[in-house]
Amino acid sequence: MSEVKILNSPAVKNMPWQDKPAGLKNAPVWRYSENPIIKRNPIEGVARIFNSAVAPYEDGFIGVFRGEQTNGIPYVYLGRSKDAIHWEFEPEKVQFVNEKGEPFMPNYAYDPRLVKVEDTYYIIWCGDFFGASIGMAKTQDFKTFTRIENPFIPFNRNAVLFPRKINGKFMLLSRPSDSGHTPFGDIFVSESPDMEYWGHHRHVMSRGSEWWESLKIGGGAAPIETTEGWLLFYHGVCGTCSGYVYSIGGAILDIDNPSIVKYRCTNFLLTPEEEYEERGFVPNVCFPCATIHDSETGRIALYYGCADSYVGLAFTKVDEVVDYIKKNSVTNAVDTSLGLQ
Ligand code: BMA
User: Fold this and answer.
1) Ligand 1 centroid, distance to 168 Cα (angstroms)
2) How remote is the CA of residue 282 from the centroid of ligand 1, in Å?
3) Which of 77, 85, 229, 339 qualifies as a FRET site for 144, CA 20 to 30 Å off?
4) What's the rounded Cα separation, in Å, for the pair 179 and 155?
5) Residue 10 C-alpha to ligand 1 middle, in angstroms?
6) Ligand 1 binding pocket includes 110 (Cβ within 6 Å)
7) 3-state helix, strand, coil in the chain (%, to 5)
8) How confident is the model over 17-64, as pLDDT tens digits?
């Protein structure tokens, strides 16, 4: 095994973990035996929680959760946990305000990500800005959630922030789209000096290199900084005669120029195969949104939505997963370029 290390990330006390089961085949990513960790009807007025993001906070963990309300509209709910497995949710949805502190609620919000950059936590979601688009807010205390400018005009359905500035700029992965169940999509990266003005857009990687990701791809968890580059867990979608199938893929991006893909795993890392992934509100969905990772041990816990119905947890180790991605890497000239055209 190589000596790949997680960089610029603290050790995590109470890291959620389960050892690799004997006889695991294929990618070195294994499910938590008690999955799903969040089941149906978790909050009064919320039928399902899935596609959600968590982070270490104070002496435990905090998360922003996609709660599908009983009126069918998705919103963001806050949850806290001591062990990152058992979660307690606030009964009310997150109350967003504008810069003046006045209520400023999105019409709806789904697939939230939670990323700490320096001393601020950013929440990024898909919402409505005259069509599907990216919404953002910031908080330092998880009491006040202040909206910041929408980074892009419509349509864009999937955005993930890097956990530190690169060359002095905030960096955001996103997937330009249409407003429906978009049947296409590649990952791009954009940079900003201030989290308000976004530009220098670059193409990162395209759908289509493998069958399991032949329709569209999108950023998943915030990239993890490692000695080999940014480790990205993303989702890849293929179309079948009974609908889309969402799997989890892995790639490693260049540390200073993340539009350059150094390695891209030709195999999926996880694909729907358990009952809670294959059966639900939308069947056959594994949708990664966050990791908790411990720089001391290299352990990674991956949080993913299951069948638009539950939250699942899977584990891997940074050295094993990076080795697997490198060993099974297939890139093309578009992936490995700076992404200008
Ligand atoms: C995508 C997003 C996800 C969802 C997936 C499968 O377009 O809307 O929230 O998990 O479809 O339904």
Assistant:
1) 32
2) 8
3) 85
4) 6
5) 31
6) yes
7) 5, 45, 50
8) 999 999 999 999 999 999 999 999 999 999 999 999 999 999 999 999
